Amino acid sequence: MLHFVDTTPSRPAVTHVIPKGKPVVFVVRFVCPQIEIYDAVTFTLLRCLAVPGLGLHPFGLAVCPSNISLYASDSDNDGVHSVELSDSNAVMKWSVARQPAGLTVNRAQNLLVVA
Q1: Which helix (H) or strand (E) holds 10?
Q2: Where are the beta strands (DSSP E) in the chain?
Q3: What confidence score (pLDDT) does residue 82 get?
Q4: Do 35 and 61 contact (CB within 8 A), yes or no?
Q5: Greatest CA separation for the chain
Q6: Cβ(96)–Cβ(112) below 8 Å
């Protein structure tokens, strides 16, 4: 289950309820190459997730519960970062044609990227 929360145009957030865990809110901020994870009930900061190579102007986040992954768009580097939300927090990056902005995951677990 995904819920998108538009806090401000420069600070998008994605709320995702992890089936076996607590509901959390993921927040990405401009000029900050990390993703903040908050408790969705108390809005207490749980931890910061470093994303190596993430540019200073990320625009979007999406979560795939099936793949247990978080995706972050990187308009500075024309790419998308995939972060495993497991103990490893392994990060992969792939290039896209031009500055990605919006991200979403459809029912078939496909990541859709809007440039």
Answers
A1: none
A2: 2-8, 11-17, 23-28, 34-39, 45-50, 61-64, 69-74, 79-84, 91-95, 102-105, 111-114
A3: 92
A4: yes
A5: 39
A6: no
- R_g (Cα) of the chain, nearest Å: 13
pLDDT at 13: 45
CB neighbourhood size of 98 (10 A): 9
Q: What pTM value is reported for the model? A: 0.77
Laid out side by side, the sheet with 79-84 consists of 61-64, 69-74, 79-84, 91-95
Residue ranges in the chain modelled with pLDDT below 50 = 1-9, 12-19
- The structural domains of the chain, ordered by start, are 2-114 (2.130.10.10)
Amino acid at 26: F
Give the strands of the sheet with 45-50, arranged side by side. 2-8, 11-17, 23-28, 34-39, 45-50
Q: What are the residue ranges of helices labelled H in 1-115?
A: none
Q: Is the dihedral angle over the CA atoms 100, 12, 69, 1 positive or is it negative? A: negative
